[in-house]
Amino acid sequence: MSGEPEHASVQLSRRALLRSAVGATGVVAATLNPALAQPKISKVAVNYQDHPDGDKRCDKCIQFQPPDACKLVEGSISPQGSCRIFVLSRG
Amino acid sequence: MIRRVAPIWRVIPTRRLGLFTFVLFATAFGIGLLPQPAASLPLYARQTGQPCATCHTAFLELTPFGRRFKLGGYTLDGGDWKGPPFAVMLQPTFTNTQGAQPGGAAPGFGVNNNFVMQQISLFTGGRFTENSGAFIQGTFNDVTRRFSWDNTDIRFAKSINLDGHTLLWGVTTNNNPTVQDVWNTIPAWSFPYISSQLAPMPTAKTFVEQVYAQQVVGLSSYGFLDDLFYLEFGGYRPLSTNTQLALGIDTTGQSPISGIAPYWRAAVEPNFGNHSWEIGTFGLASKVVPVGMSAAGTDSFTDIGIDTQYQYLGDPHTVTARLAWIHENHNTSASHTLGLANNSNNQLRSLNASASYIYDNTWSLTAGRVSVGGTADAALYGTFTGSPNSAGWIFELAYLPFSHGGPSFWPWLNFRIGLQYTHWTKFDGATTNIDGMGRNANDNNTFFAYIWTMF
């Protein structure tokens, strides 16, 4: 019975490093593909509704993209709609 | 064998910087320093153009939006920030324990009533490309006066349509089992979100409760189907001693993973109106080299957890309830042979339950219950009683003045100014004379004040 620490067994091997590099290359290559869609947030996750919430209306929000889109929330967005992440546009 | 997380801070000796570490950091920081098309963590607030309250009910707790921002690879933008993607965190704190700690709360600190800048952290990451991003943290700890890498999570994510179903899938490489998770029930992100590093903590904890934080590197893939079903599977392997030292980790007393440790996570999160409810399970299993000594073979453990979280996200009222329960089966046959454990098999059970009321993302009141229990093993846990059992209550009041936007000179400034009280009903297996020298469990009751600053 020895008390030698097992430090050597946990070194990263050259083979493991090569495998990691190949995997990382694949991920980087995939990320550079402009055809991939950027994930947006679902309407249900922000409690989107197609009517205003008091003064909160999508067409007053900084994230609204006329005529019917949002930079952050997926799908068709009504200018009269509202959701939980409303931020008043300064413009 | 004491299984607390060892102090992890150490000045980085550059000459020991391993190739893997260099590649990881060069890639992460190199990409992070590229000009951003636009760019809660303030760097994410700048990137998205949203205030803290979009992603957090009261930071750190995530909202449904925050969870999806993370699962989506930190890629969403919408802000007009053109500067570099960095953020800073400061944690000045004050700690008082009911009974003084003879010899000092830590080297260089007094026996009680200690002030310290507990952490100074620099963050980078955010969106790299349309489908990749990161959370990268480096921390200087003024208790141990060391700098090290901290929580790191680098992702690729993509949303695809499968015959009418939406699948958000991704891969994450990270350095801490559960750090990639998005619910605030699981160890890396559970309440309390900040604790004193100058107060006594129970000796025993399950392995999945941050024992391997920053000591490992992992890769896992995940899918989030129809915004409802979440499934993740991956594995962790230990970093070499030299790599850990290069990253500032103190390797003293570690019991490293042997081989690859599988990690799994499954959850379902229905959202309806202002309600969000999650129920799930998670786990980590591995062979372990006890205290780095392999002469008697390996121990092994299997940690299986179940968790649930409910959020009511009203305006201005928010209520959250969280529960996680972990069962650990720990085969300690190698430790037993080495004289590091009395038994050849042990069990631990850990409970973390808490509930918060949050007003307007600004005031947060939380009560929590923490407990750990299991088979007695004096050699394994090193407690006076031999028992790992501890239990306590935690109460916290926090004020977050800038969750909806900071002052005009720096709109991304935010504070979490908190008062926290921890009351121990049992500590390391006893309520009285917990250390054989007359100290009682309630001598470890802790009053903790902090000004958690992010900008």
Describe what you observe in this structure.
The complex is a heterodimer of chains A (91) and B (455). Chain A has 91 residues and is mainly alpha-helical. Chain A has one helix at residues 14-31; strands at residues 64-65, 69-70. Chain A has a two-stranded antiparallel ribbon. In chain A, strand 1 and strand 2 (69-70) form a beta hairpin. The longest helix of chain A is centred in the first third of the chain and has 18 residues, at 14-31. Chain A is globular. With 455 residues, chain B is mainly beta. Chain B has one domain: Porin (Beta Barrel). Chain B has seven helices and 20 strands. In chain B, the strands form two sheets. A 16-stranded antiparallel barrel of chain B has the order 3-4-5-6-7-8-9-11-13-14-15-16-17-18-19-20. In chain B, strands 1-2 form a two-stranded antiparallel ribbon. Chain B starts with 18 loop residues before the first helix and ends with a strand. Residues 1-39 of chain B have low confidence and may be disordered. At the A-B interface, helix 1 of A face helix 1, helix 4, strand 6, strand 7 and helix 5 of B.
Q: Helicity level of chain A, as a percent range?
A: 10-25%
Q: What's the total helix number of chain B?
A: 7
Content-based structural category of chain B: mainly beta
The beta-strand count of chain A equals 2
**Per the principal axes of the C-alpha atoms, what is the gross shape of chain B?**
globular
H/E series of chain A: HEE
Oligomer: heterodimer
Question: What strand order characterises the main sheet of chain A?
Answer: 1-2
Strand content of chain A: under 5%
Alpha-carbon Rg of chain A, integer: 24 Å
In the CATH scheme, the class of chain B would be Mainly Beta
Helix-strand pattern of chain B: HHHEEHEEEEEEEHEEEEEEHEEHEEE
Major sheet of chain A: size, sense and barrel closure? Answer: 2 strands, antiparallel
CATH homologous superfamily designation of chain B: Porin
